């Protein structure tokens, strides 16, 4: 088992402020949309505790976090502490005068872009989504705030991603968008996402090959980070693509995710309640026997269907969020990432 099992390794906190959202994306990993949100008193206590525990990064997410009725007060508290605060948003509301105050805060922004204009709009089920996002990114860039883009690869956009990257390259020059990176990962069968839109392992491997080949002579001002790559990262040398090491899944050794109903999860993709903020503190949950045992089972290599894979250390079974429940069955069988395209010993 990797990492320390004490609160000292608890560095990152994801808080799902609300279940409410103004979009209806086909790949949404949240549960069914609802108007429930975390109460401000609970949030204030969480943020104080996270700061006292020397937390390093806070990510405010949703739903759409700007729809929380106390978003201004939340940002006041969050940005008064020592950790780095990021807002994970679809950004459309930043174009409304009502939310202009958000850009006054010292925040990083995480936004999602899933293809060229027509493709992105179709995935968002909103014909204005693309133009709205670009306009919002221009506003963010004018205030010198960092933008990290997340792109989810799936059947509707797999042939659009490279053209999207080229378009982003143009926009960073002509519209002066200040993009730090585009983090590209495959869609997960989580929440209300439509599993029929997922790529097969073979299709995902082909995507990585095409992405690598078509961008060899592309020199963007932003990073392009892709994962999981299952050993294919060696092919990226000399090009602009980087492998995303997050898929080693140390994230559950260093973070917690708070759902809008107060349930505490190991991560955003694994809706396995470890406790609830109305009943216990974050540090107590992170150090609890239930959490320690969950991490031990989840990270144990003998539970990973990787045999003697020569690239295991590069991905360590990848993301097994869709299949993690199988690890807790009486007769559990080893599992691995649904997108792993390697077979046998992986040679």
Write a structural description.
This protein is of the alpha/beta class and 347 residues long. It is 27% helix and 15% strand. It is built from nine helices and eleven strands. Strands 8-7-6-5-4-3-2-1-9-10-11 form an eleven-stranded mixed sheet. Strand 2, helix 2 and strand 3 form a beta-alpha-beta unit. It is globular and about 50 Å long. The N terminus is likely disordered.
Determine the mean pLDDT. 89
The SSE string, one letter per element, is EHEHEEHHEHEHEEEEEHHH
Spans where pLDDT lies below 50 across 5 or more residues: 1-8
Beta strands, count: 11
Amino-to-carboxy terminus distance = 25 Å
In the sheet with the most strands, the strands line up as 8-7-6-5-4-3-2-1-9-10-11
Q: Taking Cα atoms only, what radius of gyration do you get, to the nearest Å?
A: 20 Å
Count of DSSP-assigned helices: 9
């Amino acid at each position: 088992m990797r990492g320390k099992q004490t609160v000292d390794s608890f560095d990152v906190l994801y808080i799902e402020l609300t279940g409410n959202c103004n979009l209806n994306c086909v790949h949404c990993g949240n549960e069914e949309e609802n108007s429930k949100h975390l109460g401000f008193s609970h949030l204030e206590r969480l943020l104080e505790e996270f700061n006292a525990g020397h937390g390093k990064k806070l990510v405010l997410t949703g739903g759409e976090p700007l729809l929380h009725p106390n978003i201004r007060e939340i940002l006041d508290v969050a940005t008064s502490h020592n950790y780095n605060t990021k807002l994970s948003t679809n950004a459309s509301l930043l174009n409304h005068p009502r939310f202009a105050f958000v850009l006054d805060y010292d925040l990083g922004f995480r936004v999602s872009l899933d293809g060229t204009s027509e493709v992105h709009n179709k995935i968002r089920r909103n014909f204005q989504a693309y133009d709205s996002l670009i306009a919002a990114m221009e506003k963010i860039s004018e205030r010198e705030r960092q933008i990290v883009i997340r792109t989810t690869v799936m059947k509707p956009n797999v042939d659009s991603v490279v053209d999207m990257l080229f378009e982003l390259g143009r926009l960073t020059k002509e519209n002066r968008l200040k993009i730090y990176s585009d983090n590209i990962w495959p869609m997960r069968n989580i929440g209300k996402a439509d599993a029929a839109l997922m790529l097969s392992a073979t299709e995902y491997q082909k995507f990585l090959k095409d992405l690598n080949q078509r961008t060899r002579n592309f020199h963007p001002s932003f990073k392009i980070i892709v994962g999981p790559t299952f050993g294919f990262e060696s092919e990226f040398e000399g090009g602009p693509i980087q492998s995303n090491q997050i898929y080693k899944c140390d994230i559950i050794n260093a973070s917690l995710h708070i759902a809008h109903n107060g349930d505490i999860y190991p991560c955003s993709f694994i809706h396995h309640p470890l406790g609830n903020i109305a009943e216990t503190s974050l540090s107590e949950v992170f150090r609890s026997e239930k959490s320690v045992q969950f991490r031990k089972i989840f990270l144990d290599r003998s539970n990973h269907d990787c045999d003697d894979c020569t690239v295991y250390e590069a991905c360590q079974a990848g993301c097994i969020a869709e299949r993690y429940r199988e690890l807790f069955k009486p007769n559990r069988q080893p599992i691995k990432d649904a997108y792993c395209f390697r077979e046998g010993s992986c040679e």
